[in-house]
Amino acid sequence: AGNGLHQLRYPTDVLIDKETDSLIICDYGNRRVVRWSRRSSTTQGEILIGNIDCYGLAMDEQRYLYVSDAGRNEVRRYQLGEKNGTLVAGGNGVISELNQLNEPTYLFVDRQQNVYVSDNENHRVIKWNKGAKEGIVVGGGQGGGSALTQLSYPYGIFVDTLGTLYVVDEGNHRVMRWTQGDKKQGTVIVGGNDQGAGANQFNVPVGLSFGRHGNLYVADCDNHRVQRFSIE
C-alpha cells in the first residue's frame, strides 16, 4: 500500500472499461480514481479524478463515469478526462431528506441513466431519476434494523431489467431483494441466519455481482471468501 502511481491503498471498487481495455479503480485510501491499462507491460496507473473520497463506481452505455463521494455525500457523473463532473445525486448536506445522502457507497446506473445509490448511514437505497432534484426510496428507509422493511448499512447493489433491486444488507449479514411494485418490504434471498461461517451465513458481506448464467456472487468479507448462489 502507498500513494505512488504504481500503488493502491484500500481500493473499494473497480470496473472494466472495454473501450480502452483498462481497469478504473476507486483508490479510496489515496482519495482518487485511477485507471490502469490491462496490457502486460503496465507498471503504473494514471489519476482520472483526485481529491475525492470515492467509494463506488459505475459506467453507463455512453461511457459516462459515475462516482460516489462519501466525504461530500454526493454522486457525480464524469466524461472520461473531465475533472469536476456534474452532480447527479445528493450534495445538499447530510441528513436523511430525499435530496440528501449520508455516506453513499455503491452505485448502479440503468440504461435510462437513473442512478441507484446505497445511502449507507441512512440505511436505505435511493433511486435518482435522470435530472431529478431528489431521490425515491426503493429499499429500506425505515431506520437501521433487521425487519423486512429495513436495511442496516447497505453496500453492494444490482438492479435487473425489471427494476428488481438486489442489495447487500451488511449489518444484517444478508442479501435482500426488493421488487418494483413492493417498496414497503423486501425478501431475504440468502443469509439472514446470524453472523457466521456456514454455507448459509455471512460475516460482513460487502459486494455482489451476477454471472452470465444468473448465479449470484457475494463477497463475504470477514469470512475471506466469495460465495456463489443459484437464485430462483
Automatic annotation (TrEMBL):
The keyword Ribonucleoprotein does not apply. PROSITE patterns: NHL. The keyword ATP-binding does not apply. NHL repeats lie at residues 100-131, 196-232. CDD domains: NHL. InterPro entries: 6-blade_b-propeller_TolB-like, NHL_repeat. One of its GO terms (cellular component) is extracellular region. Keywords: Glycoprotein, Repeat, Signal. This is Uncharacterized protein. It comes from Rotaria magnacalcarata.
